[in-house]
Amino acid sequence: MRKIILRQFLAFSFLLFAFHMVPSSLWAAELKIGYIDLQRIVYESDAGKKAKSELDALIKSKQVVVDEKRKTLEKLKSDLEKQASALSPEARKAKQDEYEKIEREFLRFAQDSETELRKKDAELKEMIVKEVFELMDKIGKEEGYTMILDRSMVIYGNKEIDITNIIIKKYNESKAGSKKR
Q1: DSSP string computed for 37-86
Q2: Are 141 and 27 in contact (CB under 8 A)?
Q3: Would you tell me how many other CB atoms lie within 10 Å of the CB of residue 44?
């Protein structure tokens, strides 16, 4: 067992020594690495800005409906409180039941709206990310990149290898080109 471990250690040491002897300029010439800030691409690209404006419009329309339903609910509650002493117990119970039903509908609508907005946001971002990945694959092959990483995976990266602006520019161009066709 000790002989096997000793052989593996010697083999590993030899490989480490051999790699160390290769000039670092040869390694650098073969590796071309870049990184991107995917979140910045999503928010700063033309498609990302358009998606955000679509989402903002949807949020505003949902907010109008939520505000209207909230006002109706508040008016109903106010009316119920004002009329409570004048109503018979049966009428008060009927009004209370009506209020609770409308309140449940309001809460369900608000919850459904929030879910719909999150889903729409995810769909828009997913579409952009898919297109950006396809573009990065193409750029990576055409420009000879060994690797393109996301900024979230890079602890330190020289700004010279940050290709975010290049990707945004080329993505915007590709989207503008596809609109002209």
Answers
A1: -HHHHHHHSHHHHHHHHHHHHHHHHHHHHHHHHHHHHHHHHHHHHHHTTT
A2: no
A3: 15
Distance CA 178, CA 33 (A): 28
Q: Which residue(s) pair with 162 in the sheet?
A: 35
| CA separation for the pair 12, 1 (Å, rounded) | 17
- Answer yes or no: is pLDDT of 2 > 70: no
Reported as a single tens digit per residue, the pLDDT across 116-150 is 999 999 999 999 999 999 999 999 999 999 999 99
Write the DSSP symbol of residue 144: T
Looking at residue 86, its pLDDT comes to 83
Neighbours of 27 (CB within 10 A): 10
Structural domain boundaries of the chain? Answer: 24-180
Letter string b/e over residues 51-83, b meaning 16 or more CB atoms within 10 A of that residue's CB:
beeebeeeeeebeeeeeebeeebeeeeeeeeee
